[in-house]
Design goal:
This protein has 407 residues and is mainly α. The protein contains 15 helices and no strands. It has one domain: Growth Hormone, Chain: A (Up-down Bundle), CATH 1.20.1250.20.
Length: 407
Amino acid sequence: MSTSASSEVHAAPPAPGRAQVAWVLALLLGLQPLTTDLYLPALPALTRSLGASLAAAQQTMAAVLLAFGCGQLLWGPVADRVGRRPVLLWGLALYTAAALGAALAGSIGALIAWRALQGLGMAAAVVCSRALLRDLYEPRQGAQVMAWAMTGLGLIAIASPALGGLATAAAGWRAALALVAAGGALALAVVALRLPETAMRLRPDATRPRVLLAAWRRIATHRVFVAWVLLSAATYGGLFTMLAGSAFVYIDVLGLSPTAYGAVLGAGSLAYIAGTFVCRRWAHAYGPVGAVQRGAAFTVAGGLAMALPAALGLQSAWAIALPQCLYAIGHGVHQPCSQAAAVGPFAEQAGAASALAGFVIAAVAVGIAWWLGQALDGTVRPLVYGVAFWSLLTGAVAWTLVRALPR
């Protein structure tokens, strides 16, 4: 297929409006909390049901993230070569089938394998989401559209743990994982019926090793990419520490029921949605760089407020939940800005840039999952100290590397 022919084919469909782009992005990016948050209330139950150790249970999360990170390196260049739409269709079909397999798994090993395939499919959805945003918008506009999408993601994040808790209480952990498969099927139907191709020019050489390695070298050494990806990875590091460790802390250590735990996560998601509204205002008024300078204050305050009671020997659900909301507000500012801005300089290679950014973030999450499997000790300390560490790193990156970027 020639480049000119590709351009002619993909210029035909009308460009989707901002509202349509935002809600499609919300659905695609919402697969992340659907995959992680919805099954969190079921995690202790499935651990007992399958006779698994705590470390093995953590591997069900780590498997998703490892495949998610590596899968983005695969799907990103393919999306630059064949387009966003085919990759989305292939990836979402794989995601849905793997989610069904996970719901029917008979052993912890089988569950880990199905979850890895699920992460591979989810990688296609996320990498193409960032790439199609860059296809359609410049970074400043993209940050505002992404903030709308992140609001929708926040709504999915609110519903996910609550639905997971209710499904687990009513019908067991398999019912919670079946809901994940239903979400994948919905996303697949929406893309198939409503989303046109957004890449105006395809790159037939995008998957050639020499071309790809040269592109990744150029992207990985670009100061704009480095600053924004480090910010995105740091803020997500704190969020993921909370997601991966909070089920055991809230339920097993602090004694909350799965339903109450889902409500606590829902409160954090409401705070995150508030942060995305703040992000839209600040990104418009101050640009992405100015927005994250202000958002970092919420992040650091939340992390330190969470760690202080634990340092004083206090173990309370409220002492974690309230600072968690502060952190979530900051995260709602950082993620839309960083995800849109990281791929901003790479209009011709948005897929490769999105893939590399996603790989870095996923690698951080895999490391956190491994660490939590070793560090959780029946107290709140590993969880809250971990969040505090990532909050301080987020503030440091926002107030140094990002601050030094052109506005």
